[in-house]
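ligand=EPU
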Amino acid sequence: MLNFQNDISLRQYNTFGIDAKAKSFINVKDSNDLVEILSQNSDQEILVLGGGSNLLLTKDYPGLIISIQTKGIEIIKEDKKEVIVKVQAGENWHEFVLWCLEHNLAGIENLALIPGSVGAAPLQNIGAYGVELKDVFHDCEALSIATKKLEIFNLNACDFGYRSSVFKTTLKGKYIINSVSFKLKKEPHWVNTSYRGLEEHLQGKEKTIQNVARAVIEIRSSKLPDPKIIGNSGSFFKNPIIPIDDFKKLELKHPDVPNYPDKKGWIKIPAAWLIDTLGYKGYRNNDAGVHQNQALVLVNYGNAKGSEIKALAEKIKTAVQTQFSIDLEFEVNIV
Ligand code: EPU
């Protein structure tokens, strides 16, 4: 029996803790139920929720919200060096990282503590501390909402970019990810400590995947607010990538601007630095604010409305445009 709920609060289903309502809502524990759910609701607008950790709800949702709660982690292929692990979409991302550490499988230790679900991870090609999902991605199984058929997307088909994939661009809203398969390494491991700060954190310690994960957890916990305590969605903005000529002009005015070379002729600038330089770090208007330790993260101190967070984001975007002539893009999905 499918258990649809009506007019329920979504507060516990989004890490911003926004108290918007869904007209209709269903928890899915078995992906075989999805075809029937879609058939029964073909006239409704549909929104699929993973961990709700990259989402800003600015109004009550007028359609059906499908919350994916499917579980299961399985090694489906293995040789002396590698394993392919298939993970159901509803598994919690960080719990899957811990599973890999317990099984001594390398690849996603730098992605420890990222909030959200495994099924949501490919959507924006999650990344942190020098590693992105695409580096360990094998393929994913996704259900087409139009045909109700399962399709396999390999690395190429996903068209991963910086915090982007085909599921966020051309195929947005058209598929439900059922499971993701990862290619992970057995010992001997190679660990990626290229990201500034990570190497220092590991001084004097053995470079094991467990120690890398521990260092990442420490760094993240010191900078990023815990959504269980203060509502947030991690980085609200993407780091802009600008042409080198624009960067040179910016550097003349601001010799201290941090910068990282990107694709040829382009430079990535930390959005946090732009926002911080404009004095917004720690800014607060009612319950909507900018986190005091990391200017890239917008926070809900309690009862902010999604529209108030969005207004703050727009205000920052306009200020950055006016002051630096740089267009900030939202990383978070605004609904
Ligand atoms: N900075 C400031 N003010 C601040 C914070 C940072 O000026 O308040 C400057 C510093 O110069 C710092 C630089 O910005 O060196 C970069 O900051 P940080 O290393 O904290 O990383 P980030 O570029 O702000 C990105 C990701 C994070 C990821 C970290 C670590 C994006 C949009 N964000 O942040 O991802 O955890 O790198 O790899 O790419 C997320 O996507 O939700 C997320 C948290």
